[in-house]
Write a structure and sequence with these properties.
The complex is a heterodimer of chains A (about 150) and B (about 80).
Chain A (H helix, E strand, L loop, with lengths): L17 E4 L2 H11 L5 E10 L3 E3 L4 H20 L6 H10 L8 E6 L17 E6 L5 E11 L1
Chain B lengths: L3 H14 L2 H11 L4 H5 L21 H4 L7 E3 L2 E7 L1
Classes of the chains: A alpha+beta (about 150), B alpha+beta (about 80).
């Protein structure tokens, strides 16, 4: 790829965005898990300007804002008996031009794939993903290596 | 950086303005995927195809990768990765 592509998977947690991993290891694992139909994947790296990103991982103020916002929205959706997922709520706030004011959102979960942990049931590492809305904050996008599965 | 307090007030106003009907209409207009929309309304049939996941070959490359968390270009620019 010459430049990053926008993910349009309707189940992507942040909707249409360019998704990056904070850790090269997680990018590699994603390739292993999701590119087995092609038997091949490439890993890219980029520098991303982060001063207008909603950082729910390391910034406490941002995380508190995020938490309150998601929970308020959950209540509103629940009133209409909608079992809203994070994808739905993110799409709602982007559609209403609220989250789209950010260049991207950083979020985390915990990797719990038993194939990849060193000590059983010891899940200590954040798996951090960044969904970028504004391609202009991405620079030095380049392939790091390719890998046959 | 965006004024989060101002944005939160805007979000509060937005959510307050929503009715049960308006939020339902928005949700229905988006056609979010469900298992039914992905699978259709047909019947399930068992196919004799091998389980691809059990055939994934584990590479040892992961052992060679260091955690590169310190690759900061400047304080507001961080290096990220993607696979494609």
């Amino acid at each position: 790829m010459e430049e990053p592509i926008i993910c349009t998977d309707p189940e992507a947690w942040l909707g249409n965005a360019i998704y990056f991993w904070y850790s090269l290891e997680d990018a590699h694992n994603w390739g292993i898990d999701f590119k087995n139909s092609t038997g091949y994947f490439e890993v890219y790296e980029a520098d991303i300007k982060s001063d207008n990103i909603l950082d729910t991982v390391f910034n406490e103020t941002h995380y508190s804002f995020w938490l309150r916002t998601i929970e308020k929205a959950l209540k509103v959706f629940a009133r209409s008996n909608i079992d809203a997922s994070l994808t739905v709520i993110n799409e709602y706030f982007r559609d209403k031009k609220k989250f789209s004011q950010f260049d991207g959102i950083m979020f985390q979960d915990i990797p719990m794939n038993k194939k990849r942990i060193v000590v059983e049931n010891f899940y200590y590492r954040k798996r951090i993903q960044l969904g970028v809305f504004n391609i202009n904050i991405i620079s030095n996008f380049a392939i790091r290596y390719n890998c046959a599965i | 950086m965006i004024d989060l307090k101002k944005l939160e007030r805007e979000i509060d106003d937005l959510l307050e303005s929503e009715t049960e009907e308006s939020i339902l209409n928005w949700y229905m207009s988006k056609k979010f995927p469900t298992y039914k929309t992905q699978l259709g309304e047909g019947e399930f049939h068992t196919l004799s195809i091998p389980d691809l996941y059990s055939k994934v070959i584990q590479t040892h490359l992961i052992d060679l990768i260091d955690h590169e968390y310190e690759t900061v270009v400047d304080s507001n620019c961080v290096q990220y990765s993607m696979a494609a």
